[in-house]
User: Fold this.
Amino acid sequence: MKRLATILGAVCLAATPITLVGPAGAAGRHQVETLTLTATRHAYVTTHHTYSVTLNPCTDRFSGTGAVQVGTTWLAIETITVTCDGSTLSFDASYPTPSPNVAYGVNEVPVVSGSFSGTGYRDYFPGTRSWPVTGTVTVTATTDYANHGAYVSADPGADAAHSCVGMPITH
Assistant:
């Protein structure tokens, strides 16, 4: 599995405002990336969502938090995980209200010019329903560590020492 920004670079060459680094950041090394993802779920009530997600370069999974718009207020109550299998975006977002274990997302939706559109799902009592979901994906920040030692020096500690940030990409 490749990093999502690399994939977006391949399928979204004309995308703006996506800022892309090379295929693997500094000289083909794992780097930390932060993405902004917006999504609109077109259901019986249209809902707007925004997320800030960070890549775990060791697992190629993005995770983070987000907010859902209720009226004119944004409630920062959501969590999200994001993956990509080559040229498609999948995510699962969940939030605790109006009832526990409410989730929605998309599976294997193509990303074109930084945008996606497809059939998503929403899990809630008593089951799962399909709904259209549209949105955007934008790279908002990256690191550029020349090697693993530079990363550990910048953020000393056991977590940094065990991380793959700055190490060569082998997949």
